[in-house]
Amino acid sequence: MDLGALQRGIDAAVTATADGYWPPLANLARLTEEVGELARAVNQAAGPKHPKPGEAVAEVEAEMGDVLFTLALLANQMGVELAAAADGALRRFRERAAPPAQG
Question: Which of 29, 55, 30 is nearest to 43 (CA)?
Answer without folding.
Answer: 55
